[in-house]
């Protein structure tokens, strides 16, 4: 870590002005800056920011940005630090502005079905508050306990329930944000329909803090799903996975919540180094975790004479040979066991070799081709290479990990070239749900045309002409 006993490249005049405007308890410099602010979850070399700002309100964010703008300072915006693309990772001399103290649920409007929260509120706090009021938050991520709603919006986060509830964008009704010069723009809208001019809020969703800092958010809530049923299914062919997806949705429209696929190498790792029990007698090509909200038609999971459309539908697929084998949860313990295979990935960093990880989208019709190309590409790095592929699939999103005992920076660059070339060749996206940040910036052209990138630059120039907010993220 860089030694930073003094504020790097932050002049005394700015420090004095910030202290006077915000109070000294809102500033941290040098060794008083916690190491947790020197690196996000992307795995980059830690770099302590030149100064850490800890505002408690939108007004304080506005004051801080106005002063930094006047002094030409550069800002990196930080939330829960769970990002995997280097978006919140400091660069030399940057001021970190953390929203961790801007935390709390401001309102739950049960008539409008909305929740208003400050940007530093964790996703789990929002989920629990919605549940306590009889509602459901449509955004869900594995990092729910530490990621913040502001970060979820800044990266347009996806997660396990996108199939039914959409990305973060689809759950946001209103925002408040602070522009680079300190201007506050507020549209805490609670209505589904509001076509009064440009919807500027949509511009900030997925902008990764490069256009402004989101400080408050209004989320649309949903009725809590009832009668959730879970199944773990084995497939020998990926094309049958797609057939089941389409036919399940046609038979039971609007019921599916989760459609998580794990290819053979992933499951082998979960039950080998991961230590989980094999779910099926033989290792399938694809293992699928399905969950559906069956409501009053859920039947009795323990098995009575009530109608059980979930089981009946899957049984029909088994009879047709679309599914090779299936396990249907009979209890919450069964459901937790099914999820243990999908969530084994959180232990993989501890039990397998270092590697390079990816979050990409590829058209569903070409996912099978993508996996075969990835297998071929991984073999090119030697027989010791471990390829893992898993993901949400129904929304075209897969996660990829390529690890090797001799993994180093040079190999990582070569692996990235291999994977992103495949993604580009199949008309996919280099980023599905974790943003671009610094780590994918140089590959943006593989998913966006020159005209699109030029438009992004024009928008950035209009809202942040001095390039002070999250410089070097998304755009070079």
Provide a descriptive summary of the structure in words.
Helix 1 (12-22) packs antiparallel against helix 2 (58-71) and helix 13 runs antiparallel to helix 14. Strands 15-12-14-13-17-18-16 form a seven-stranded antiparallel sheet, sandwiched between helices. The protein is an alpha+beta fold and 476 residues long. The protein has four domains: 12-98, Uridine Diphospho-n-acetylenolpyruvylglucosamine Reductase, domain 2 (2-Layer Sandwich); 105-223, Uridine Diphospho-n-acetylenolpyruvylglucosamine Reductase, domain 3 (2-Layer Sandwich); 228-342, Alpha-Beta Plaits; 353-451, Alpha-Beta Plaits, CATH 3.30.70. The protein is globular, with a radius of gyration of 23 Å. It has helices spanning 12-22, 58-71, 123-132, 149-154, 162-165, 168-171, 200-204, 238-251, 264-271, 309-320, 332-342, 345-351, 367-379, 409-425, 450-463; strands at residues 27-28, 51-53, 75-78, 95-98, 105-109, 114-118, 135-136, 172-178, 184-187, 213-220, 222-223, 228-235, 256-263, 286-293, 325-328, 355-361, 386-391, 397-403.
């Amino acid at each position: 870590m860089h030694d930073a006993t003094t504020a790097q490249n932050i002049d005394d005049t700015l420090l004095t002005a910030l202290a006077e405007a915000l109070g000294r308890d809102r500033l941290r410099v040098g060794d008083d800056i916690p190491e947790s602010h020197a690196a996000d979850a992307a795995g980059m070399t830690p770099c302590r920011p030149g100064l850490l700002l800890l505002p408690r309100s939108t007004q304080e964010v506005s004051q801080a940005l106005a002063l930094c703008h006047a002094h030409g300072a550069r800002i990196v915006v930080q939330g829960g630090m769970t990002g995997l693309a280097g978006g919140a990772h400091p660069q030399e001399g940057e001021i970190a502005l953390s929203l961790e103290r801007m935390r709390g649920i401001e309102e739950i409007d049960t008539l409008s079905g909305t929740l208003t929260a400050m940007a530093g509120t964790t996703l789990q706090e929002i989920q629990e508050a919605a549940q306590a009021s009889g509602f459901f938050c449509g955004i869900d991520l594995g990092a729910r306990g530490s990621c913040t709603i502001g970060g979820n919006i800044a990266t347009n986060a996806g997660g396990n329930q996108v199939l039914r509830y959409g990305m973060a964008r689809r759950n946001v009704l209103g925002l408040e944000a602070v522009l680079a010069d300190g201007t506050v723009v507020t549209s805490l809208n609670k209505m589904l329909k509001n076509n009064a001019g440009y919807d500027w809020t949509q511009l900030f969703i997925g902008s990764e803090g490069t256009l402004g800092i989101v400080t408050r958010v209004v989320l649309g809530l949903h009725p809590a799903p009832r009668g959730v049923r879970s199944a773990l299914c084995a497939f020998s062919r990926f094309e049958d996975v797609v057939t089941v997806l389409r036919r399940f949705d046609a038979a039971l429209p609007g019921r599916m919540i989760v459609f998580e696929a794990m290819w053979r190498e992933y499951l082998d790792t979960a039950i080998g180094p991961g230590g989980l029990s094999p779910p099926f007698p033989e290792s399938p090509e694809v293992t699928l975790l399905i969950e559906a909200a069956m409501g009053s038609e859920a039947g009795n999971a323990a098995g009575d004479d009530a109608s059980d459309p979930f089981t009946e539908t899957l049984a029909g697929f088994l009879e047709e040979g679309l599914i090779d084998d299936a396990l249907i949860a009979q209890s919450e313990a069964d459901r937790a066991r099914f999820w243990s295979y999908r969530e084994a990935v959180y232990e993989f960093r501890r039990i397998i070799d270092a590697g390079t990880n990816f979050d990409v989208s590829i058209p569903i019709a070409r996912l099978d081709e993508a996996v075969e190309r990835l297998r071929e590409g991984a073999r090119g790095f030697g027989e010791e290479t471990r390829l893992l592929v898993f993901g949400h699939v129904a929304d075209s999103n897969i996660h990829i990990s390529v690890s090797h005992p001799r993994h180093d920076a040079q190999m990582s660059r070569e692996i990235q070239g291999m994977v992103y070339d495949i993604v580009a060749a199949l008309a996919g996206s280099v980023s599905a749900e974790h943003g671009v940040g610094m780590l994918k910036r140089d590959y943006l052209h593989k998913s966006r045309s020159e005209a699109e990138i030029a438009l992004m630059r024009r928008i950035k120039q209009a809202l942040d002409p001095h390039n002070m907010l999250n410089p070097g993220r998304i755009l070079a």
